[in-house]
Amino acid sequence: MLICNVVGARPNFIKMAPIVHELHKRSIAQLLVHTGQHYDTQMSHSFFVDLGLPEPDVYLDVGSDTHARQTARIMRAFEQVCLHYRPDLVVVVGDVNSTLAASVVAAKMHIPIAHVEAGLRSFDRSMPEEVNRLVTDHLSELLFTTEPSANANLQTEGIASERVNYVGNCMIDTLLKHLDAGIEAEPWARLFGMEPASYGVLTLHRPSNVDEQEILAGLIQTLQRSTDVPIVFPVHPRTRNRLEEAGIDLSAPLRPCAPLPYVAFLGLVARSKFVLTDSGGLQEETTALGIPCLTLRSNTERPITIEEGTNCLVGTDPYKIRESIASVLAGNWKQGKRPPLWDGCSAPRIVDVIEHWFSERC
Ligand code: UD1
User: Residue ranges per domain, the chain?
Assistant: First the structure.
């Protein structure tokens, strides 16, 4: 049995790492394919180092492009990989273009697909990730979910429940494994000369927030006027490009910096006062850590972070953002709790299911 694990973008590395480690522990043959969707040291290599991931067996080197061209390049290159190695199962994670491209290729070659983080839905098809999720789920043989809403969504869409396994959250496996190291590294002091719990953290990279100058400028202005508390802002390359194009300067309380390696960023978030974000993953990480999360979007595909966790959708309305930051700073925020099975053991559950599935097929 040969399992082919496909990664391409930053959040993929975090979700795939515990699966790669678990397969290795059980001596199951695996192949790690990196599409090269993310390629900068800060967006890719530093994650492989921090997460203890081996060098990819195959690097497709596709780089950035329009959605169609990037997806097509991954498909062409990944087809060759499948022809050469003939894997028995392709494992994809999350909802990026690499996830979609690898799934389409595998499905056309009749190679079964396992999708980790299946079933999440924002019900907003203007998000590229929503399209990627829908297609990938409907092509997958094994679907691994992180929260009950995902099971309900898949059921509504007619996907047989025998194929769906609620296993918890692999990203939280990684978080729990590295949390102590992140805190011991004291990134707030070492990188920014600050005290713990004296700052916020901001991430921003959704096309809907950063690709239009007016929206991006409005958000930055609102954040700069909302508080005196320093806000560390590791700037994603997409956002950096848009800020430069629009000539937007970042000033206090924002403290911009380059994207951070995984462990440093985890430590920084774990000791922050609050997080402002439009990322999907960070909504879950803050829920696991019990840190208030103000999500700069009007919807989420991860409703459990609102129902049980520390997340709140504040959107992009300046008044709501200011009010929410004021509430957090006044100590008025829900405590939240960690959702069921976000316990650091999701990857072993996934590999159990895969092994059982293989044994049934033989
Ligand atoms: C991608 C995912 C998004 C995920 C995000 C995490 C898709 C459709 N989007 O968005 O779901 O939340 O990754 O970071 O798959 N760039 C660099 N260096 C890199 C990578 C990108 O400079 O290593 C720049 C390029 O200018 C590129 C832009 O960032 O055009 C956007 O990269 P891309 O991978 O297309 O989308 P992300 O915004 O990163």
Answer: 2-168+342-361, 176-329
Q: Which CATH superfamily is domain 2-168+342-361 in?
A: Glycogen Phosphorylase B; (3.40.50.2000)
Kindly write down the DSSP assignment for every residue of 101-133, as one continuous string.
HHHHHHHHTT--EEEET-S---S-TTSHHHHHH
Q: Which of 10, 64, 67 to mutate to test the pocket of ligand 1 (most atoms within 8 A of CB)?
A: 64
d(CA 24, CA 19): 8
Give the fold, CATH level 3, of 176-329: Rossmann fold (3.40.50)
Query: Is 205 part of the annotated catalytic residue set?
Result: yes
What residues are in contact with ligand 1 under a 6 Å CB criterion? 9-11, 37-40, 43, 64, 95-97, 128-129, 205, 236-238, 241
Q: Give me the sheet containing 293-295, strands edge to edge.
A: 254-257, 231-234, 200-203, 274-277, 293-295, 311-313
pTM of the model: 0.98
Residue nearest to atom 9 of ligand 1 (CA): 96
Residue among 37, 133, 301 to mutate when testing ligand 1 (max atoms within 8 A of CB)? 37
pLDDT in tens, the chain (362 residues): 999 999 999 999 999 999 999 999 999 999 999 999 999 999 999 999 999 999 999 999 999 999 999 999 999 999 999 999 999 999 999 999 999 999 999 999 999 999 999 999 999 999 999 999 999 999 999 999 999 999 999 999 999 999 999 999 999 999 999 999 999 999 999 999 999 999 999 999 999 999 999 999 999 999 999 999 999 999 999 999 999 999 999 999 999 999 999 999 999 999 999 999 999 999 999 999 999 999 999 999 999 999 999 999 999 999 999 999 999 999 999 999 999 999 999 999 999 999 999 999 88
